[in-house]
Design goal:
The chain has 265 residues and is mainly beta. Helix content is 12%, strand content 50%. Strands 3, 4, 6, 7, 9, 10, 12, 15, 16 and 17 form a ten-stranded mixed sheet that branches.
Length: 265
């Protein structure tokens, strides 16, 4: 058996005066967390995989909580890389965040890059109070285009679920096994796109953002107001660079002109 990376983080934010601060925190294994200084009132936490990426048999777990009336922003130090995992179990990532009444969660990881031969099983569950709000993004990059890499053999299972007051609010799932490049090349699938992203904004202000966000989108993207408090955006892009050019203005718009510092480096 080859050595496998394992890591777990558990943290919660609480209110202290006008600011959100760290309440409880524990980290173990190859999963670490940094807390950069900021001038704002949110608690910013940066998730860091010290193993340098994810490969078959790795396991990473995160559990977070935004207590009542707090603001918690979670991001990653850099793009996450999912490496080749031949003939073995997938790398597993399980994320679970609870958002209490009056709290705001910004789930803003940087891109996940899939390498050829990679295998990933990833789950994100966000449980929010009826009076909470959530902004989340999940960007995916399909191979290293600049190096001529194409994804002819990958295994991917990626599920995102939002629950409000214990009831399903939004769910999105991807599952694929095989030649992803051939699949994405189909005009009615992705027309050869090399990257994509999902943005979900669950907030009482979602409806008011619809027209502004629509004006920021390229032709290869779309936005839907599923209900007055739920905005969903899907973006296809030729490359990770083009994807980020679209993502950053939208995330700034939906987050009061704020982005984690890691996104600027």
């Amino acid at each position: 058996m080859l050595p496998r990376a394992n890591g777990a983080i558990r943290l919660s934010a609480k209110k202290l005066g006008p600011k959100s601060v760290l309440d409880a925190f524990r980290q173990s294994g190859s999963y670490k967390c940094l807390f950069p200084r900021t001038d704002g009132t949110a608690l910013d936490a940066v998730l860091l995989n010290t193993a340098g990426g994810i490969t078959g048999g790795d396991s990473f777990r995160f559990h977070g909580r935004a207590d009542a009336d707090t603001m918690l922003t979670l991001t990653t130090q850099a793009c996450e890389r999912v490496y080749r995992a031949p003939n073995g179990p997938p790398g597993k990532v399980v994320n679970h965040v609870t958002v209490d009444a009056g709290a705001r969660l910004n789930w803003l990881p940087q891109e996940t890059i899939l390498y050829n031969g990679s295998a990933l099983d990833r789950r994100l569950l966000i449980e929010m109070d009826a009076n909470a709000s959530v902004l989340l993004v999940e960007p995916l990059v399909y191979g290293r285009r600049a190096m001529g890499e194409v994804l002819t053999d990958i295994r991917l299972c990626d599920r995102i679920e939002l629950r409000r007051s214990g009831k399903a609010l939004f769910a999105d799932a991807l599952q694929f096994d095989g030649d992803l490049q051939a699949h994405l090349s189909k005009p009615n699938i992705a027309d050869g796109a090399g990257a994509m992203a999902l943005i979900v904004f669950a907030s009482s202000t979602a409806e008011g953002q619809l027209e502004v966000v629509r004006g920021l989108l390229p032709e290869s993207a779309g936005v839907s107001l599923i209900r007055s408090d739920l905005l969903v955006i899907r973006i296809l892009a030729e490359s990770s660079f083009e994807l980020r050019k679209t993502l950053m203005p939208i995330l700034r718009q939906l987050n009061d002109d704020n982005l984690p510092r890691c996104w600027m480096i």
